[in-house]
């Protein structure tokens, strides 16, 4: 019966149809937990995301679920709320449920704490590691040697455990947005949303290196929380600078921050993009509906999810999975960027 319900190729179609009909009449439901206890295998994968209401992680989750469904796997979701202790506890829950693999998205904690320093007995994939750093890293990334800072950031998120990582090219994406602004003629460019987390530090490094490449002075790098409110307040403070020191373009850490930036710019009576351009990251759903619609870097969120699930399945089959995949972004041109005044 079990083989018939699982679609085993050795079971004839006629037999399978009869078994399925009998199961429906009897309202039979397989006990997957009991099966996992007996066979020590499972057809469920655990996924930990920072927030289920965040459209960014919703797209990643959709990609995982699609790929899992195609392989006849189910997905057990949990929210970490970007809290390292909750990450650790939910991973313990996944292991207790005997999941076949674990996908940790937007991780805030250190890998050593997740499994008490031991090698997990299931495959683990990390998507976009948001590892936190000491606050002192923000001023260091503003003025320190880019090579040394980059080395420190990468070293802090390397792990000796056999985890696969699927991450966005944060450094390259920041270089891409600055090059776009430079191509439009901008020379005074600011960054809003610097935080002591891995993606923000890499984006600031990319921002710096692209300005250096263009022979332009380093613009203001302003710290703020990753939210419309954070972007709004940080930009309010930035716009108190003398008129000759104001940027003609602002790179925001992400789209949510950029939406707050645009609102603050408008509140000061400054036209976007006529007098000041704004660009974000991620291409969340609201980016196309801001006013004006937001130019941004699109992260391949659904593809990240599908790749994470593919990596889990490869490991389950005993195949070698790629240790690290860095995915490039795509520049999405909308109406929030244009030439600076006078060009």
Describe the overall structure.
The chain is an alpha/beta fold and 343 residues long. The chain has three domains: 1-30; 38-135 and 147-168 and 301-327, Rossmann fold; 170-299, 3-Layer(aba) Sandwich (Rossmann fold). It has 13 helices and twelve strands. It has helices at residues 2-5, 13-25, 32-39, 55-70, 84-96, 111-114, 137-143, 146-156, 170-183, 198-213, 228-238, 255-267, 301-316, and strands at 44-49, 74-79, 101-105, 124-127, 164-168, 189-194, 221-223, 249-252, 277-282, 295-298, 324-327, 330-332. The strands form two sheets. A six-stranded parallel sheet has the order 2-1-3-4-5-11, sandwiched between helices. The radius of gyration is 24 Å and the shape is elongated. The model has no long low-confidence stretch (mean pLDDT 87).
